[in-house]
Amino acid sequence: MKKAGRKAKSSQYKFRRQTFSFHQYWLMYYTEHYPDRSQKDFASFIKAKSYALAKTILCSKLKEDNKDLKINAVVGYMLHKDFSNSRRQKKLSITDWDGIRACSFPNLNNFLFKEELERPEGYTNKYNKTNYEHVKKIGFQKGKNNWSTIHRKGKSLPIDQRKGMKWTGDKWVEWDKEEMLKMKNSVINALIFNKNNRLKAAEYLNISRSGFYALMIRCETKAWWNENYPIPKRVPPRVSREERSATQKRVMAERMANGLGFFQHTDEIEAKRLANLRAAKTKQRKEYLEGLVVKIKEALSKNNNIRVEAARSLNVKVCTFKSWLKKTNFLVDWQKHYPSPKSYA
Questions:
Q1: What is the largest CA-CA distance in the chain?
Q2: Helix (H, G, I), strand (E, B) or coil at 9
Q3: H-run or E-run covering 193
Q4: With left for phi above 0 and alpha for psi between -120 and 50, is residue 269 left, alpha or beta?
Q5: What radius of gyration do the chain's Cα atoms show?
Q6: Would you state the pLDDT for residue 88?
Q7: Distance between CA 207 and CA 210 in Å, rounded?
Q8: Does the structure show a pLDDT above 70 at 318?
Q9: Which H or E element spans position 74?
């Protein structure tokens, strides 16, 4: 008994994956989409050495004739001596071949002959007919039959009401205040250590970014986080030398039109520049010291407040670690809150 094997590949399957040494004639079916959202189906003859090249020629010509046109559902069949399809059951005659050669593209007149195909009633495209009655019975239902209404009613909680609440896997319950405060402090430390970058803070806590945002909302409101730990501004993209030069020329032209010449700085402008520079330096140093405090706290907590072990865990010299303690002593009294253990002789 002969075993059932794979279905034999059709001849067109082989033709579409083959490149011929001479031109073949391809019958191409396609759909045109217009800006007003209407569609029409067409058929054309293309002369090319491969199916891929025939598709490229067809799409290029259609785009050339109408730039706003969109083409999809392109499928082609190579014409041969035994060719037949559902629309034409009999084989091609000599007269048919002469007509195909005459109206195939490319041609001397650079004209694409198109035959519009009538789309059957009820079809949304040239392949499928939509059964709207069946569509009404499947998918997400509205109202009382909605899946979420049936299975999640009384369990889901709006995002703006999740502050101070905890999900147990079955329902939302009130979060223990001490546990919530502990988690809030860990989120704050992660944000300070990573300069308020949410993604890096989430990676620091080894959780996903969406989970990190959910944790923030459960501890405090979104407005509170944005006010106290604002999202850092994005670094502007690098500008090419030509664009930068054009911008500088435009700015200088505007300055000169307002009566300002090259490099004219008043005392008021200079004082404002120095004040902005000092403020930026102060902010930068504050962020640096706050990041050091987080590092030092973590290292001392893990090493029982032993300074030498803490420095070794941070991979820095002991003298460097002690200088960090002196720099940040005005922020945290290290000897009071993290006293070093007494040594006995």
A1: 114
A2: coil
A3: helix 177-193
A4: alpha
A5: 37
A6: 57
A7: 8
A8: yes
A9: strand 70-78
- pLDDT tens digits, residue range 53-62? 999 999 999 9
Phi-psi group of 73: left, alpha or beta (phi > 0 → left; psi -120 to 50 → alpha; rest → beta): left
Q: Is 47 helix (H, G, I), strand (E, B) or coil?
A: strand
pLDDT at 168 over 90: no
At 71, which helix (H) or strand (E)? Answer: strand 70-78
- Decide the pairing of beta strands 39-48 and 24-33: antiparallel
| Residue 32: pLDDT band with limits 50, 70, 90 | very high
> Whose CA is closest to 33, among 126, 103, 113?
126
Q: Do you know the residue count of the chain?
A: 345
**DSSP result, 228-265:** HSPPPPPPPPP--HHHHHHHHHHHHHHHHHTT--TT--
pTM (two decimals)? 0.42
* Position 214 pLDDT exceeds 70: yes
Place of tokens 């502007």: 236
pLDDT band at 154 (very low <50, low <70, confident <90, very high): low
Query: Exposure string (b/e) for 63-98, b if CB count within 10 Å is 16 or more?
Result: eeeeeeeebeeeebbbbeeebeeeeeeeebeeeeee
23: its two tokens: 């031109």
- Rounded-to-integer distance, Cα 262 and Cα 319, Å: 50
**φ, ψ dihedrals at 8, nearest 5°:** -65, 140
On whether the CB atoms of residues 288 and 326 are closer than 8 A, the answer is no
Tokens of 160: 């703006």
Let me know: does 285 contact 296? Beta carbons within 8 Å.
Answer: no
Q: Are 111 and 105 in contact (CB under 8 A)?
A: yes
DSSP state of 159: G
Which of 236 and 63 is assigned the larger pLDDT?
A: 63
**Distance (Å, whole) CA 231 – CA 195:** 9
Parallel, antiparallel or unpaired: strands 24-33 and 70-78? antiparallel
SS3 content of the chain, % helix, strand, coil (to 5): 50, 10, 40
